[in-house]
């Protein structure tokens, strides 16, 4: 199984070298999507050997960085794409847990609320409330049994990426993903990952800093995803993973 690990990066000069050093211990093939960083991140990446790299000339958004990673993976010969953040919240040693879980699924998603870990930190109140609200609404409508619909630590089979048409460039991209996964009857599974908020004051930026507007935006993404034009679905190879659909 050939694995590519993709890391979207925007202004992560503080973390990027340490994160890459850790990721290299667990996966040799790393794609960094530099989403228009202006803080010296690009110059630090120039010093990193052996990286696959995409540079957006300007910041396009979290979802846009993953769209670029998905396109790269679809055009490659890798079997599985792992995605993780660059802010230190995702632990690279858990890549192996994602890969162990994907043998009978299309998408494996990390969950910060699936189980407790000794190193867990409290989630900011508004983020936890919005995550729980949106997760409950997605489960009710699409028959999932998810506990965390926003975690960016995931593994995707390349064949699953070919069934998706992700266009949401902002923070709501994971919600479009779940709607499309349900519509395409993809097999999904969650695994527990530690809940690490290293900087609880880190903001989304702009109107997204307002919890009410953020929740309204997320619901608009869900509604819009119902109308997405999707690639022709093929029959699933086996039944959905237990406890998920």
UniProtKB/TrEMBL annotation:
<dbReference type="InterPro" id="IPR050256">
    <property type="entry name" value="Glycosyltransferase_2"/>
</dbReference>
<dbReference type="InterPro" id="IPR029044">
    <property type="entry name" value="Nucleotide-diphossugar_trans"/>
</dbReference>
<dbReference type="InterPro" id="IPR001173">
    <property type="entry name" value="Glyco_trans_2-like"/>
</dbReference>
<dbReference type="Pfam" id="PF00535">
    <property type="entry name" value="Glycos_transf_2"/>
</dbReference>
<protein>
    <submittedName>
        <fullName>Glycosyltransferase family 2 protein</fullName>
    </submittedName>
</protein>
<feature type="domain" description="Glycosyltransferase 2-like">
    <location>
        <begin position="7"/>
        <end position="164"/>
    </location>
</feature>
């Amino acid at each position: 199984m050939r694995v590519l690990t993709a890391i979207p990066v925007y202004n992560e000069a503080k973390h990027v070298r340490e994160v890459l050093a850790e990721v290299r211990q667990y996966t040799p093939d790393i794609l960094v999507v530099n989403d228009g960083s202006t803080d010296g991140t690009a110059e630090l990446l120039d010093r990193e050997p052996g990286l696959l790299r995409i540079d957006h000339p300007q910041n396009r958004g979290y979802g846009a960085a993953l769209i670029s990673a998905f396109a790269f993976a679809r055009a490659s010969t890798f079997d599985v794409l792992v995605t993780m953040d660059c802010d230190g919240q995702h632990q690279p040693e858990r890549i192996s847990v994602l890969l162990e879980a994907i043998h009978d699924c299309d998408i494996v998603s990390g969950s910060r609320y699936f189980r407790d870990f000794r190193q867990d930190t409290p989630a900011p109140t508004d983020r936890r409330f919005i995550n729980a609200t949106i997760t409950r609404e997605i489960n009710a409508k699409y028959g999932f049994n998810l506990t965390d619909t926003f975690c960016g630590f995931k593994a995707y089979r390349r064949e699953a990426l070919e069934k998706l048409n992700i266009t949401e460039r902002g923070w709501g991209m994971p919600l479009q993903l779940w709607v499309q996964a349900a519509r395409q009857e993809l097999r999904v599974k969650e695994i527990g990952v530690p809940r690490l908020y290293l900087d609880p004051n880190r903001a989304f930026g702009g109107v997204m800093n307002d919890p009410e507007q953020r929740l309204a935006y997320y619901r608009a993404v869900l509604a819009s995803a119902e109308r997405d034009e999707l690639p022709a679905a093929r029959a699933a190879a086996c039944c959905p993973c237990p406890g998920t659909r």
